[in-house]
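Trying the structure run again after the queue cleared.
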Amino acid sequence: MSQVDIMRASGLSNTVLCDWLQSRYRGNVERVNQKLEKWISDMECFKCHEELPIFLRSPQNTRPKFDETIIDITLNIELRDGKLLREKLKWDISEHRLNSMDFAVQMCKDSKIQHSNAKRISDEIQSQLQKAQSLNVRTKKK
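Done. Tokens:
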């Protein structure tokens, strides 16, 4: 099982899970602990390998990765209180269950940033996603 599998199944963002695993997470650690405890508890109900969700059944090296497109997002945003938000994260543009606004709202909660900054964060993420997608389309046409 990969970190991406755990992220998708638990509902945590990749950035949050990665930072949490490396003991660098500065947000609401208790919320992350609770989500992971719930995910572990939910997984205990499966009695055998065949009952697991399909994406957790296959060994990682046999799962298709053709739809995964990871890009780097760099945030350098002056927040409403004058502080500077500097964050680097990875984003899978083929993952449609997560959107930039939900991510930004959660980031504000976890990092104790005023909620009024969420739209600014979301817009910056969305801008970089659109740029990466347009570059990806141009690259595929060549």
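The first strand starts at residue 70 and ends at 78. Worth checking whether this holds up in the mutant runs.
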